[in-house]
């Protein structure tokens, strides 16, 4: 966010960026767009070499932003090897989840029978990215499980997972999974009105479990993973009519991951300045009608239903090259120009102080004395409760006068490095804005 906002609020920097990236823009973060934080990070990762070149170029050094404190801070981010390690870490964790959300967001194919399995498969590449070290990826699993259990998981997902023949017959553990079985019977109780039909469905589940009747035909076995689950039940569930009707009803449901986003857009369109006196109930009714008309239009234009493949979830990080935490590729040892020059980005980071803690600044009065007085001032402040850095940074002004800037560490100040690690905190977002 800091890099985007700093560059795109200054037209000169935007032109400089386009020159080095060959007119490829950085994606701007937004609140109501789909996965923009992930897309922004992936674009920044793709433009790593160009951003490096830009912030060590002569054009940047001679610009007025080079001496600006914010400019120095942004340059330190780009030149900081740990920053790129964190970018790769974030992309590897979020990549499989974004793939699942894109799969769910289709609204044209009945995805209900695949969500449960897709979420389980999305966790696997995350663990693989951390070499299956539980201590390193458990915190991400906790975040995913909390969101899944509280907001996303519904009995319909479990029931559709149970009724998907491709997953059910390949994984015998589904039958003993308490959460899946509980979701199935909750759906039966909620969606089937009469107790007689509920009892019939309970009896007919035995045929499904044991692959009896049509379920055991060689053609039915071959097409478990070829046909869509709803079409499979329509073709081979005729000897269990009540269970067939229930399964088709559940497995034919479509899903969406951005209904709230679209509702916000509809509300914004309807609740304009001319309609700001609409009653809440009437506004809700208008949104309901408009959004469902859009759903009907999309349904009428739906593509041909075909089976859903979840095999690509493990390969969802196709744009990610390199690694983090010192594994595999080492970002610090990349050469800036060529191997013959021997200059690496680690040398640049050390020379520019990119990895050093960033301190808040306090402008002192213009230095009227020589360097001996500056050293004397440091010696006299040794007993002070505030610490000063040994190396003073001197900026050259346009009129060839020198001005001294002291870097002071406030005991109550959180360093920029710590602040950077928690960019997603609300306070930090407000500070960056």
TrEMBL record:
Regions of compositional bias (Acidic residues) in chain numbering? 397-409, 416-433
**Name of the protein described by the UniProt record:** HAT C-terminal dimerisation domain-containing protein
- Residue ranges for the region (Disordered) are 356-433
Any one Gene Ontology MF annotation carried by this entry is: protein dimerization activity
Coiled-coil boundaries: none
Q: Which organism is it from?
A: Heracleum sosnowskyi
Domain HAT C-terminal dimerisation: from-to ranges: 228-292
**Low complexity bias located where?**
360-372
Which Pfam families is this protein grouped with? Answer: Dimer_Tnp_hAT (PF05699)
Q: Which SUPFAM superfamilies match?
A: Ribonuclease H-like
């Amino acid at each position: 966010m800091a890099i985007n906002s700093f560059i795109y609020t200054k037209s000169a920097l935007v032109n400089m960026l386009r020159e080095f990236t060959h007119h490829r823009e950085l994606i701007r973060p937004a609140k109501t767009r789909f996965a923009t934080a992930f897309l922004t990070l992936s674009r920044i990762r793709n433009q790593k070499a160009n951003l490096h070149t830009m912030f060590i170029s002569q054009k940047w050094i001679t610009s007025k932003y080079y001496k600006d404190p914010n400019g120095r801070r942004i340059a330190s981010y780009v030149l900081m090897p740990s920053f790129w390690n964190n970018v790769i870490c974030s992309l590897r964790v979020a990549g499989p989840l974004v793939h699942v959300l894109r799969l769910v967001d289709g609204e044209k194919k009945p995805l209900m029978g695949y969500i449960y399995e897709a979420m389980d498969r999305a966790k696997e590449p995350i663990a693989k990215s951390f070499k299956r070290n539980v201590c390193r990826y458990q915190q991400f699993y906790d975040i995913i499980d909390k969101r899944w259990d509280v907001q996303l998981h519904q009995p319909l997902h479990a029931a559709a997972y149970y009724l998907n023949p491709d997953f059910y017959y390949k994984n015998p553990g589904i039958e003993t999974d308490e959460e899946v079985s509980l979701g199935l019977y909750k759906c039966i109780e909620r969606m089937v009105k009469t107790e007689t039909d509920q009892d019939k469905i309970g009896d007919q589940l035995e045929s499904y479990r044991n692959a009896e009747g049509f379920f055991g035909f060689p053609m039915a076995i071959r097409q478990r993973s070829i046909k869509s689950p709803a079409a499979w039940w329509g073709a081979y569930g005729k000897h269990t009519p009540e269970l067939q009707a229930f399964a088709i009803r559940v497995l034919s449901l479509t899903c969406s991951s951005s209904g709230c986003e679209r509702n916000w857009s509809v509300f914004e369109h309807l609740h304009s300045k001319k309609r700001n006196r609409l009653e809440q109930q009437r506004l809700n009714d208008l949104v309901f009608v408009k959004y469902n008309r859009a759903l009907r239009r999309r349904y009428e234009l739906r593509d041909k239903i075909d089976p859903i493949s979840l095999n690509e979830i493990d390969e969802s990080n196709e744009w990610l090259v390199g690694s983090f935490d010192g594994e595999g590729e080492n970002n610090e040892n990349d050469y800036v120009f060529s191997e013959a020059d021997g200059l690496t980005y680690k040398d640049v980071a050390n020379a520019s102080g990119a990895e050093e803690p960033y301190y808040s600044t306090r402008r002192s009065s213009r230095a009227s004395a020589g360097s001996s007085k500056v050293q004397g001032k440091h010696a006299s402040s040794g007993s002070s409760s505030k610490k000063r850095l040994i190396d003073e940074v001197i900026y050259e002004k346009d009129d060839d006068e020198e001005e001294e800037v002291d870097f002071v560490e406030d005991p109550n100040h959180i360093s920029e490095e710590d602040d950077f690690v928690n960019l997603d905190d609300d306070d930090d977002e407000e500070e960056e804005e």
